[in-house]
Amino acid sequence: MRVDGSKITRQDDLNRILEALDDTSELEGLQRATEEIRDLYGINHVVYHWVDSAGEQYGCGTYANAWRERYLQQNYIRIDPVIIGCYQRFHPVDWKRLDWTGKAARAFLQEARAYGVGNQGFSVPIRGPNGQFALFTVSHDCDDDVWSAFTAAHSRDLILIAHYFNRKALEFEPNRQPEAAQTLSPREVDAMTLLAMGYSRAQTAETLSISEHTLRVYIESARFKLGAMNTTHAVARALARGLIMV
Amino acid sequence: MRVDGSKITRQDDLNRILEALDDTSELEGLQRATEEIRDLYGINHVVYHWVDSAGEQYGCGTYANAWRERYLQQNYIRIDPVIIGCYQRFHPVDWKRLDWTGKAARAFLQEARAYGVGNQGFSVPIRGPNGQFALFTVSHDCDDDVWSAFTAAHSRDLILIAHYFNRKALEFEPNRQPEAAQTLSPREVDAMTLLAMGYSRAQTAETLSISEHTLRVYIESARFKLGAMNTTHAVARALARGLIMV
DNA sequence: TTTTTTCTCCCCAGATCTGGTGAGGGGGGG
DNA sequence: CCCCCCCTCACCAGATCTGGGGAGAAAAAA
Questions:
Q1: Name one Pfam family in it (chains A, B) (predicted).
Q2: Which of B110, B128, B127 has the alpha carbon at shortest distance from B119?
Q3: Whole-number Å distance between alpha carbons of B105 and B84
């Protein structure tokens, strides 16, 4: 069912979209996919964007360019309730359920509507390795009832589409997955893990039942392998590369 | 299509499973769901488990209890190529594509088979807020061809099921969330970011054009907010929670 | 407008980490 | 059989970090 009530052959269209995404070999394809999805479902906007404390790493979608520029230039990531809310959640969320109290948020919403974003929205948070975070959003202009029916009918599709978008985005951004070239020895992993858990060198050594001298050898060895300048840096890199868990 | 080739009404059964998961209000329900899914697809095992360096936080599934105990007791998380491999990936992965070189991994695989895990496997990595990480795995005993066909036919279903499992697990484990609320101030983010990049305190202060004393205040403040015991711990947590990027 | 948070600066002593070098035993792979 | 990597231990001096105080101005939230 499209948002306007007309029928679509749900499963086939979803498969077509996902396969198209799978076959995409360039960023352009993701942009085109957002437009196809928008047209297929008959909604106003479809957007995928990678969210990053440093600003948008990559994004594609059907929002007006003016709005996108405004958003970036104003650094709205900091106040956008969609970002903030989704960042703490796992399951997709309807914009109505987010926290729109607060002056900045209200003003932001109003401005977004002025740029044609629509009065309804539904966002799917997605997380990849190394703390990567992205959002897949659909938005529209309609009544609450219509929108509820639409999201209820398609939330699963949207989760899958979001997943495939993110998969491609990760493929295109390979510096996220440099090479697992340098692996750490088991003992080095232990050391890095405990340090990342807040243990001091002395505590770590005691926990591992080795002398602090030996521990230092591991730390230095790990630091060398990871190309890190100090212990904190080494732990940060080990975490970022998924070599240890906390 | 089931793994043995017989047909199932794909969409309806999937919907039933997902709705059952949605309606579950106790951990027991997840356990039952794994068994239902196993029977529905006609495979050997279905497992969902939360992965954590400290050991398994929560898990349910159809593996033999003996194997589960053995796994925990031996702390196989450290060497399990499924864990290690999925931790660096986003998309689900067939076990065959993982790295099974290495003596420990080989021995592990053999032991797992001895406990009836099966010779084929397919695991879906899932990530939630705060660096939460979990795996949803299906395993079986069959030829490569049969397994390939099965995973190709159902990988999308499995992604969705994994998503719903994790959603419930997060609901049941709300103590992940409280600490999450703590956000860092912009300056604190700057400090943590530079430290994670390997800068010393002196370099960081200089880069931010503030005195080292001031920088220390940020570090301590961030450490406090993050409940960290030292700078390295604070950086590790900030990274794990996605508050900073490197 | 009041209150809260953020940003900036300062002191000091003791604990902790870092850098560079050396050395012996054990296990796996070529 | 040899080589390379992993694990273990040791010394020392100087650089760096930590803990616990206090304080004022500006900005944001209530």
A1: Autoind_bind
A2: B110
A3: 11
Report residue B173: phi and psi, to 5°.
Answer: -120, 65
User: In whole angstroms, what is the distance from residue A89 CA to residue B102 CA?
Assistant: 38
Task: Please determine, for residue B1, whether its predicted confidence score (pLDDT) is greater than 80.
Answer: no
Q: How far is CA A145 from CA A45, A87, A141, A148, in A?
A: 18, 26, 12, 5
- Say what percent of chain B tops pLDDT 90: 49
- The answer to whether the CB atoms of A239 and B236 lie below 8 A apart is yes
The pLDDT of residue A114 is above 60: yes
Q: What is the pLDDT of residue A35?
A: 97
The pLDDT, as a whole number, for residue B179 is: 45
| Proximity of residue A213 CB to strand D below 7 A | yes
Cβ of A40 less than 7 A from strand D: no
Q: Which of A52-66, A137-151, B40-54, B151-165 has the lowest mean pLDDT?
A: A52-66
Q: Do A189 and B78 touch (CB under 8 A)?
A: yes
Q: Which of A54, A88, A229 sits opposite B129 (nearest CB)?
A: A88
Q: CB-CB: which of A156, A200, A244 is closest to B53?
A: A244
Q: Which nucleotides of C are covered by protein (CB under 7 A)?
A: 5-11, 16-23, 28-29
Q: Do B240 and A239 touch (CB under 8 A)?
A: yes
Task: Report the candidate in B160, B85, B163 with the shortest Cα–Cα distance to residue B128.
Answer: B163
pLDDT at B180: 46
